[in-house]
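Section handout 9: paired folding examples.
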Amino acid sequence: MTTKNAARLAVLACLVGLICACGDSPNPNADAKKNHAATVFQVQAPDWQPCIVVFPGDTALSASDEEPLDCAVVSVPLDYARPAGQTMDLALRRRPADAPERKIGTLFIEPGGPGGSGVDAVPDFASKLSPEVLARFDIVGFDPRGVGRTRPSRLPPGAPALQCGAGLGEYFSHDLADTRPGNAATLATAASRYADTCRDDPILPFMGTLNVVRDLEVLRRAVGDAELTYLGVSYGTEIGIVYADLYPAHVRAMIIDGVVNPALSPEEILVRQAVGWQEGLEAFFRWCKHNADECPISDDPQARFQHMLDLARTTPAMFDYKGRPLPLSTGWVTLLSVLSIYSPDGYPSMARTINGVLQPVPDWTPLIATASSMASADSLGPTVWTGCMDQPLPRPADYDALVAKSAAAAPLTGAVQANINRPCAYLPVDPDPVPRHYEAQGAPPIMVWGTTGDPATPYQNAVEAAGQLANAMLFTFVADQHVAMGGGPHRQSCVVDVQSDYLLTAVLEPQAAPCHAYP
């Protein structure tokens, strides 16, 4: 995996592991009014233009395209309790249907995170669908609140989507793997200081998943579709589940792949995620031991990984963050390592990276480049704060107990996973919890995919979500990777064709047998 691809993987799709939590609303009547507002807000159809026209200077949107895509912005209420007030400009990107005369409608896609850019993800999603889906659907992705190119209507184009999002990269540069009391106090101070910078951010109070779901309802209406066709992976599954629960009659077809289960408590989600990260590393270690020709650390990969973490603690490398140096801490090294092996395609590159770090003159270059890109993208703030808004984690007095529980469940990754989210203990605004007791009663059949060795969204999440939804079927992909979409390294038809056929027909047939990544 190249450094560029690793950075893209980390920023676009693989941040779900930090935290995705949900809860029960304290004011259902107020929420009902907001949900209704999304169905009646006077929205205009997107004015699709070349992306370079819609987002001047954003050459990445045009230079990287192998096919013509276009962009637009759609205005939605910043606060659905005040739909006539200030608005947000949602950034959209579209791959038009290849056969518009046979078009079924729009397929909305969501790549996860939180913090992933749907605008950036359109080409990747399109590459993992069948030609017939590409012929008959516009593929549309959007940047959720606080992410990428979406911002309040009054802000200039160059302003950050979440003004306080950038500071989280600096917080990550602390030793997030150290569970000793003295370091816990240091982390508590740093987390509190970062949270204080978000206290007056105009977006933070309105960036929870409930508002993203309402935005999706407005977008469905904006493109003129009578019903929603949706493909969400990772955190995008939470958006899909909540949408189906709030607007069941508006769903045509929905795939949720790599499930974040809103029924779980935030503590359960965090610990499960830590265990998933640990199991992902263990899958990499097993591969390494059996592939010495591709893995230069095959004699003892776990010990070599631990040695790299020790070096990050005692003699960390430095990376550039917007013109100033930050240490490549245990937190950064653990996070980047896990994200790089969300697919077995990343195993050889990760093995070479660890081997390079352990040379007499350590070579941290791949991790330095990815950390610099990821921190400078300012996508980390939405990753943590969206989960905090959906349901807050324990307050400061109880947070160390959660760190200890997570570290006990996953010795290699648990402390980092919990400490990444420690700013949630100091959430500076009121939370906006989503329903934990969802059913989506009245929705058509929903396709739920779980991957048995998913390091980010454990398979059990999909099993439980399929059981809780009133009308859903579980589909199983046997693989060590994050999400099934695309069918793994061999583009297995039992994923690609099955997902595509369902999107085309909206008819859901049970899976005859689990789909295996390898023939």
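Moving on to protein 2 of 2.
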Amino acid sequence: MFKKFIFISSFSLLLTSQIIAQKEAPKNWFNLDPTEDKVYGVSTEKTYRELLKGKKSTTVVVAVIDGGTEVKHEDLQSAIWVNPNEKLNGLDDDNNGLIDDVNGWSFIGGTKGDVDQDNLEVTRLYANYKKMYDGLDTSKGYSSPEQEKEYRYYLKIKAAYKQGSSQYFMYQGLFRNILSGAQMIKESTAKDSLSLDDLKSYKPSNQSDAMAKNAIEQGLKRSGKNYAVFARIFLSLEESMNEVNKFVDYNYNLDFDSRSIVGDNYNDVNERIYGCNRVMGPKAEHGTHVAGIIAASRYNGTGIDGVADNVKIMVLRVVPDGDERDKDVANAIRYAVDNGAKIINMSFGKSFSSNKNVVDEAIKYALSKDVLLIHAAGNDAKNTDIEDNFPKVDIEKGVNASNWIEVGASTWKLKKYLTADFSNYGKNRVDVFAPGVDINSCIPESKYAVYSGTSMAAPVTAGVAALLKSYYPQLTAPQIKDIILKSSIKYKKKVLIPGKNKKVKLSELCKTGGIVNAYSAVLMAEQMFK
């Protein structure tokens, strides 16, 4: 799963980033028009108003493979897919081996509950290879070329695991000391908030108090004198500590195994029948947000407006708080294809893969059934032409899937940059950029929140794809991909390379050098069928 929590090397900067309010993005900006509204949205409103008004559309099923979705959300419930051949009665009415798959299926749940936390893929791989290669004496060579290749891969995995896990063990100790010190300061001052003068007069009695005082003082300095933020800073410390503990206790824990909850034979990658029908799962914020971007009702006067106006969201849960597993991803793709989805959104990714070929076969299966897959490029500000991000478009050596769109994230803040500073990029492996910063959408309990990520850019693109399929149903998956890429609005000015203080043309960061645009896409589709 793409990182939801990003650390800054200086702890005081982390505090400051949480307490200084940012200028708000224009309301519903991802649906706005670059010319009319001066933000690089995808021109959804203009498209419906000028090009699609009065035209007929057909319902399109869009599968959201994610961490779970709230199907009863006030702005989504009318757009949730219902299996026409299944009833909620404890029986397998449609004879597909899955009981009560009314709105979709969860491949990470079972009779014992639902998977919430899980390892990262690098942890699972390291645990497996460690048993075979830890302490191997290579001074006399290898038993075979295959063993040498696998051993070198093990060393790569080991290095990645050590680098990733060590920082979180360090953060755990650091945050524990700071949190303890902050509690002492709070109790000794008997105040819920502190001014800079209050903090200056406090005399630390030990190193923990000194660390806490310094971190909080730096945050207050950057926020302005007498700015009462101590209570919020203290809360952020607790939240930070909880996040660090998750990485240590689950993500990087070599001994943690969640799979007993599911109850499948995990080593059997061809197994299809397992899981449960609880598609919401324990954490549905991410999946609900994604689904809302695509399909939130445009006509109920509530909440937000999704991109597509005649779709049904099929909910498929495979993403825990950790990395998704290839077997589950492949089965979710196959389920979506077999049950009528024509667009699949996948807002997840990871740096390593255990069974890439299993996912590749599912992608090929989707192509054979004319199903389009939209994938988020990732949030590590890395060049995926050089560094891996799975699943990937290249399903065979030198062969890319023609039913796959890889999407980077763009922002509304044009005066500074067009590309999101966290977005992955790649001249060869990222196809196009789409709005992915400060996106307001649905979250559980019929609420709304603003999230940022390529996870948001992918469903914006999936919504445009669904719109095209809905109004021009004769379009094939490769044709829809071709239209979206060719009709993207080319950005001529230089943009910042994400994560770097260097500018290049957008065409150096993705194949098209453009931003997804529904208006241009519909015009191109119209020309095709004239």
